[in-house]
Amino acid sequence: MRPELPRSIQVRDLSFDFDGGPGGLWNPAQPELSHTLNAFQLALPYLEPYFIDAIKEAAALLGESPLREVAHAFCAQEANHSRQHKRYNRSLKARYPRVEQYEKDIQQSLIRSRREDPLAWRLAYTAGYETITAQLSRWMFVNSEELFHGADGRFAAMMLWHGAEEIEHRHVAYDVLRAVTRTYTLRARGLFAALRKTERDIRPVVTYMLEVDGLGSDGRSRARRRNLRVRLLRAMLPAVVRYLSPGYHPSHDREPEEAVRWREAHYRGRDLRSIDTAAPILAS
Questions:
Q1: How far is Cα 198 from Cα 243, in angstroms, rounded to an integer?
Q2: pTM passes above 0.85
Q3: Within a domain: residue 2?
Q4: Distance CA 109, CA 47 (A)
Q5: Residue 56 maps to which CATH number?
Q6: What is the DSSP-derived secondary structure letter of residue 8?
Q7: Each residue's pLDDT expressed in tens, for the chain with a length of 284 residues
Q8: 218: domain range?
Q9: Which end of the chain has fewer surrounding CB within 10 Å, N or C?
């Protein structure tokens, strides 16, 4: 019998030790995938506090709404994510020192947005980005056997923990945005801005890390990178189409069975700070 999982958002304070790890090339058999996910998560120690600030500012306007309590749980999850990705990024910078400059550029752009952009826009951007992360998390869980087989077990564990919680709280930023404004065009613009910014931030970081690893001019590596980009775009497109539907709500997006299994494993007390990636992921 499957355990009865809590219905509320759970704040799971997991911590991951990356000392002595692979320093970025967490799946040597798939360097393009390694660096695409490295580049994606590089921004998270700065993006997640940005999201937290916007959600907290909006939550203060919600009175005693039940959404206010859910918003605080969202913020607690995101704060944990930020801390763990910041720890991982320290290991990246030892091998790829220019990563620090990319980090600073991302941080400065978010500081400018906090200073210049109104709350409604920051919420629209947050809700759009949360759609991206939820869809990436679904893709990651559904393809976890292929993506993480033979990979560093700590990095895989961190990404699955983060992904499970992104899917769990996928509705919160959207609901907070709708509590502040129901302007459809703002919602759509926030999603497209998040997509464009993510692409611009990721591409140069992946190029740089592959160059450090001696793959910058490798034709086969370039082909694998193109194929991965096409695959990710195909995975992302259904979420974009759903989000742009006037009647959309994130709760309509089903939770992958693999993500449910992760939550069940955590609920049963399994240590998920590292995963044996030579075995079936999350095997009983």
A1: 17
A2: yes
A3: no
A4: 10
A5: 1.10.620
A6: S
A7: 566 666 689 999 999 999 887 889 999 999 999 999 999 999 999 999 999 999 999 999 988 889 999 999 999 999 999 999 999 999 999 999 999 999 999 999 999 999 999 999 999 999 999 999 999 999 999 999 999 999 999 999 999 999 999 999 999 999 999 999 999 999 999 999 999 999 999 999 999 999 999 999 999 999 999 999 999 999 999 999 999 999 999 999 989 999 999 999 999 999 999 999 988 877 65
A8: 31-267
A9: N
